[in-house]
Amino acid sequence: MDYQTALAEEIHACAARLLAEDVGTGDITAQLIPENQWATAKVITREPAVLCGAAWVDEIFRLLDSRVTLRWQAADGDALDVDQYFLELEGPARSLLTGERAALNMLQTLSATATATRRYVDLIEGTGVRLLDTRKTLPGMRLAQKYAVTCGGGHNHRIGLWDAFLIKENHIAACGGIQAAVAQARKVASDLPVEVEVETFEELDQALAAGADIVMLDNFAIEDLHVAVEINGGRATLEASGNVDDSTLRAIADTGVDCISSGALTKDVKSIDLSMRITQTFNV
Description:
The protein is of the alpha/beta class. It is built from 10 helices and 12 strands. Strands 6-11-10-9-8-7 form a 6-stranded parallel beta sheet. It is elongated, with a radius of gyration of 23 Å. The two termini are 44 Å apart.
């Protein structure tokens, strides 16, 4: 299954799960509103953000009530200003209120990942270094958050355990060394990239000698990253990881590594403050 097909299926399944957990057997508070009352509503952001999650919101309201119309004033990946309204909805007032929380939950979470990614991408602008995510995603939201990273200008590392090798410390120990681990990876799936995580210059030499496609430099000091780039000499793609934050990111990028990975993009997210307000009601 290709990525786009998998993402489309995940959007549908996620929307169904969100509605099931929130609505349950029925929205009893929405029943206070007359069935024939319709409304328009606007969604705004209370802080600067990069928008992400429109497809999830579309699917939530499609499943909930096809009579709801959504008019987007911004697209995924667009930068939003404080108090900017970016979505207008119209339809049965009951349905707008029933779907509100499920929709905002996805928007505020995915926009948080996209916003954090954009901030990091801006910090390394001009270096040519690619910013990568990791598998440290919120449970059940792997594809959604990885999509959000791309909306922020970042790039996806492997999606899961099946699409690339990442040989870490415990794999090396269990396999009997870096050379043995890389050799076995070539036998298991010769067409997939092989990445080795290293913590010392000795391990870097071993990974390069074994023919690793990518070497992850784990928690290397800035000066050691410079040395690692010289040792590598362009033989493998170098990925820096660990101790990545606003204060270190640019310095890491300036060492000459090819990419930087950060779990903070997906695991340390702080939801964007969004709000939906009814702007008009009328009977039909």
